[in-house]
Amino acid sequence: MSDNRIKILYLDDEINNLNTFRASFRRNYEIYTALTVTEARTLLEEVAVEVIIADQRMPTTTGVEFFNSIKDRHPEPIRILLTGYTDVEDIIDSINKGQIFRFIRKPWEEYDIATAIANAHDLYTARKQLREKVDALEKANEELNRFIYSASHDMRSPLVSVLGIINLAKADGSITDPNGYVDLIESCILRLDEFIKKVIEYYRNSRIDADVEIVDFSRVIDEAIEANRHRNSQVSFSVDVRQEHVFRGDAFRCSIILNNLISNAIKYQKSDEPNPKVHLKVRTFPHKAVITIEDNGVGILAAHLGDIFRMFFRSNRNDNAGTGIGLYIVKEALNKMGGTIEVDSAPGQGTKFEIILPNHVE
Question: Is-above-0.85 flag for pTM?
Fold first, then answer.
């Protein structure tokens, strides 16, 4: 039966008060008493109490000080303070800091104590259920993310195989495709493969810890351009990197950010633009790096500028619509790095992104 009752710890330096409390409530609750703070701490290590009641004025400490000393190691129990004095400032400060749930003036009435315990236990139960639900959701989310990551890897293998077969068939001329169906299939596979790669990128960005190292922006940009040049071989690039100060940051996320922004700058070019171009500029300073990426592509509607970093948001202004994940990943990567991004765009004229990254100098 005792296991089903509310477990209460009562700390008071007067033995008569402890005996009175025990006599009044032992039938309804599982009571533990302590004459000293040391005894109270020992009991907290041994028993999972749900409510702690402490007297404010004791010889070596106060109830508020005791609650403050245990709040990190034992945050779950609900705290009730008993006081026969008007320690208003201490009590208000303790309530504001979340150290106590309620205070009751001494001499206490049995009804007031019973009501406070019932309310405290309701709060304890609600918090416990919330923690359990949060833990369950976090576990389910982790399992779902692992499944998506694993499934994405497994899905890429057959896609790459199909693309290889299509390219081989095109190379040896073994396919006659007057209606362009093979090209259509290849285009669809490439889009699906891009989406899968973005999912993998998102997972890695959300899971990998920051690894601060020296970042060579020229190399990172060159790699990103090379990886995306196939999207539109007509795009010309101008790169202006002046890394006058050593930059230390998360090279992995720098690569993610630049790869996605360069990919978009190529992808969202105007179909009738005779001179599609992308300009990249990097400047490093003692405490930051400033990166700008500017294109003369289709631009972004003003009404969409507030939404472009939302997951799965896609503008329908271009037939080569993206996955709706790239800019979301960029924003998440910047959040993890403590960076910022600003966008300036006009429909039909192009888009300019400015990124500021903190330099983690030694």
Answer: no
